[in-house]
Amino acid sequence: MALPLEAAALGAALLFSLSGLVDKVALTHRMGSGPAYFFYTNLVFLLLYLPLNLLHRPLSLPPVEQAAPVALISGLTFASVWVYYRALQKGDLSTIIPLSSTRPLFAVPAAALLVGEWHGAQAPLGILLIALGALLTNAREGVPLRRLLAPRDPVFWLIMLGNLLIVLANTLTKPLLAHVDGYDFVLWRYGIWVLLGAALAPLWLRGPHRDALARGWRPTLPLAVLSGLIIYGMLALLFHALARSVQITEGLLTTQGLWAILLAALASRLRPGSVAEEHTPRVYGTRALGALLILAGVAGLLLLR
Fold first, then answer.
1. Closest by Cα among 281, 270, 298 to 21
2. DSSP state letter for 3
3. CA torsion, ordered 264, 267, 269, 273, to nearest 10 deg
4. Which of 128-142, 143-157, 246-260, 273-287 has the lowest mean pLDDT?
């Protein structure tokens, strides 16, 4: 019996949030550097995914005519994930993951301007709900509402930059996946990321980041492997769901914000300090409301048009 689409999409959202929790613990207690952890996990994931892929398909290289798009997309996603890890190092898990769900803020205008795709009369309302939800997920103790409406937190803008980059990458990825296998594409992408990371290492893997990598690679290894296995499972569920319906999958993936808030709240209560955040129930409630508004806005854009 095939796994239902909704279960696969919700499972992928939960696993993505769970991988974020593992990454936050690793960054807080094992490595302490977003750039170093990004480079290290890319290498671990590549070495992990290569044998996993070989279990059910032969190794292949991208077609020559697709090599340039694969390289460009990999470069854009490299930049977006680098930004994500920097934000995760500096910010709260219960803020970062919900903010990562706000990509339609960029995707809808880009689709309208670049390819003439309009999401209907509900598009402005959906964008407004997503924007309001994004602001509420940035709630914290002692920050008045007017400050939320004009966020100055650099982590907020880091995630917005990452969302913009991933929207550009996804726009190019959709036609590419008609010609290549999704698992192969993931493997090629991590290979290119490792090469890019190694080539750029003299620029960004210096000083404290280099020291963090040298000091933390061994104790971080179990968590990096665990994160890689979780993400591989997430990709399996994601590809299964996307093959059935892109719109429903994208809408349900937005629940990752709610999962992340729940996981962060539980971790902060059960093991204080484990994820470097501990807030009042009111703050977590406000962030959950923001995640629900993002979910409603995305559902309005993707499911009701």
1. 270
2. P
3. -100
4. 143-157
Report DSSP state, residue 66: G
What is the maximum span of the chain, computed from C-alpha positions, in angstroms?
A: 56
CA angle 225, 269, 89 (to 5 degrees): 45
Residues 77-122 have pLDDT tens digits of 889 988 899 888 888 898 899 888 887 777 777 666 655 666 666 6
Q: How many residues does the chain have?
A: 305
Number of domains forming the structure of the chain: 1
Domain extent, residue 16, equals: 5-302
Quote the tokens at residue 256.
Answer: 């990752």
Q: 183, 239 in Cβ contact below 8 A?
A: yes
Place of tokens 């890019």: 196
At 84 the three-state DSSP class reads: helix
Question: Which DSSP letter does residue 91 get?
Answer: S
Q: Tokens 């940035």: give the residue.
A: 138
